[in-house]
Write a structure and sequence with these properties.
The chain is an alpha/beta fold. It is built from 16 helices and 14 strands. It has 2 domains: 211 residues, Rossmann fold, CATH 3.40.50.10490; 180 residues, Glucose-6-phosphate isomerase like protein, domain 1 (Rossmann fold).
């Protein structure tokens, strides 16, 4: 993986220059990195790349899954699904890009929403005797995930009887929570999410490693690049640490230059789900209240070259509030564009060139265009579109967002802003513990009725 900060280090505006600003916060960044090294509340994710024991246990467990079970349904939402989904997508299994003769992987589905059409459609289409269900919720009471589980469990009991429990795996808190209790009560095997690891930082725990292992991605091998990147990214030297540089420049571009929309633009279809993972990481970690005011940038995901025909217009000529992180691929399939129709001189420049060249040049051209427009950007080049490359990127981004969060003076590991919505949902679903919230919602609906339009 290569990260090019060349354009950023030249960036200046209103008499402020990025190198000078970085020098001013170098001591703060060093202290933050030493804090991550030392460990503490919700920094257990720093140690995950070094935990080969759990990866080996998961690999052994998957090896014992009967061959006839060739489908997997993962139930989880947010941090319990976005990481493993990104890694599985990078492998190509989600689009069946793998060769037909590969038998070491299973077809995998991710249920990461409460949409009844999707949930019902998948449950109706699968053979329960050939399916293993992975239920992931750290709290053990995530409403969307538990609703999916109750439906799947009832259907499994009807179809499989007492063998239903053999088709389920729980991933949850090691000590507490309703799913932990159900694991003991129902006799369902479970794996732990470490107590000091938050959901969006849990991709290298069983949350991410088990779905990957079931999909045919070796969890032990996956930790190797993650471990190498983590060793580099917690070094307390700002200018030698790409994660610290990214976190610090992202913070400064927002707070000093007003660049508060941070765009991840990936030039690979296999990285689409990595974009969703990034948006959660950036938004939940950095969007906080500080002394009564909101802080944090807004993440935006774009896919090249597709979004050169949509979002690029806004990036190039819209308000000067964007910072773009390009992600490209060094090595990908070489697919030649043939001169299949003669006498088309207008397209001579295309013939006998590669599609891989085309998408690579489109990224370079777009970055040059944005540079001419004064839009700050960096380029991140992954070796290939693979789980190993994506997990390296994820580790770097986890450290980067932590550095940025502490520079903002907020806690990058909590998400208090999502709790209120959860209370309102439970109130609407009939939870007696939230009668006050239910009344509040009903009163609000009555006040808004005069502005309800029916078309």
């Amino acid at each position: 993986m290569e990260i090019d900060f060349g354009e950023i280090m030249k960036f200046s505006q209103g008499g402020k220059a990025m190198p000078d600003l970085l020098k001013n916060i170098e001591g703060r960044v060093r202290a933050i990195l030493k804090k991550l090294q030392a460990g503490g509340e919700f920094t257990g994710w720093v140690r995950l790349p070094f935990d080969e024991e759990i990866a080996s246990r998961l690999k052994s467990f998957v090896f014992r899954i009967p061959k006839k079970i060739d489908h997997c349904v993962v139930m989880g939402i947010g941090g319990s699904s976005l990481g493993p989904l990104a890694l599985c997508s990078a492998s190509g299994i989600m689009e069946n890009f793998r060769k037909k003769d590969e038998s070491s992987y299973r077809k995998i589905f991710f249920l990461d929403n409460s949409d009844s059409d999707t949930v019902g459609g998948i449950f109706d289409s699968i053979d329960f005797e050939r399916t293993i269900f992975v239920v992931i919720t750290k709290s053990g009471s995530t409403i969307e995930t538990m609703a999916q589980f109750f439906i799947a469990w009832e259907m499994a009991k009807e179809k499989l009887g007492e063998k239903a429990k053999e088709h389920f795996v729980f991933i949850t808190d090691p000590q507490k929570g309703e799913l932990r209790k159900l694991s003991d009560r129902l006799g369902v095997i479970s794996f732990p999410i470490p107590e000091d690891v938050g959901g969006r930082f849990s991709v290298l725990s069983p949350v991410g490693l088990l779905p990957c292992a079931i999909a045919g991605i070796d969890p032990v091998q996956l930790l190797i690049p993650a471990r190498n990147v983590m060793k580099l990214c917690i070094l307390p030297e700002l200018l030698k640490n790409p994660a610290a540089m990214l976190g610090a420049t992202a913070f400064l571009l927002d707070t000093e230059f007003g660049r508060n929309i941070h765009v991840l633009m990936v030039y690979s279809d296999k990285l689409k789900e990595t974009g969703a993972w990034f948006c959660q990481l950036w938004a939940e970690s950095l969007g906080k209240r500080k002394e009564g005011k909101g802080v944090g940038p807004t993440p935006l995901f774009a896919r090249g070259a597709t979004d050169q025909h949509s979002i690029l217009q806004l990036l190039r000529e819209g308000p000067p509030d964007k910072f773009v992180m390009f992600v490209g691929i060094k090595n990908r399939r070489h697919l030649v564009i043939p001169q299949s129709i003669p006498n088309l001189e207008k397209f001579d420049y295309l013939f006998n060139r590669g599609m891989d060249e085309l998408i690579s040049f489109e990224m370079k051209a777009t970055r040059k265009s944005l540079s001419l427009g004064g839009v700050p950007a960096i380029s991140i080049m992954l070796d290939e579109a693979s789980p190993e490359s994506v997990v390296s990127f994820m580790v770097m981004m986890e450290v980067a967002v932590s550095v940025a969060g502490f520079l903002y003076g907020i806690n990058p590991f909590d998400q208090p802003g999502v709790e209120e919505s959860k209370r309102f949902v439970k109130a609407l679903m009939g939870d007696k513990n939230y009668e006050k919230e239910k009344i509040e919602i009903e009163n609000s609906n009555q006040d808004n009725e005069q502005w309800l339009y029916k078309v």
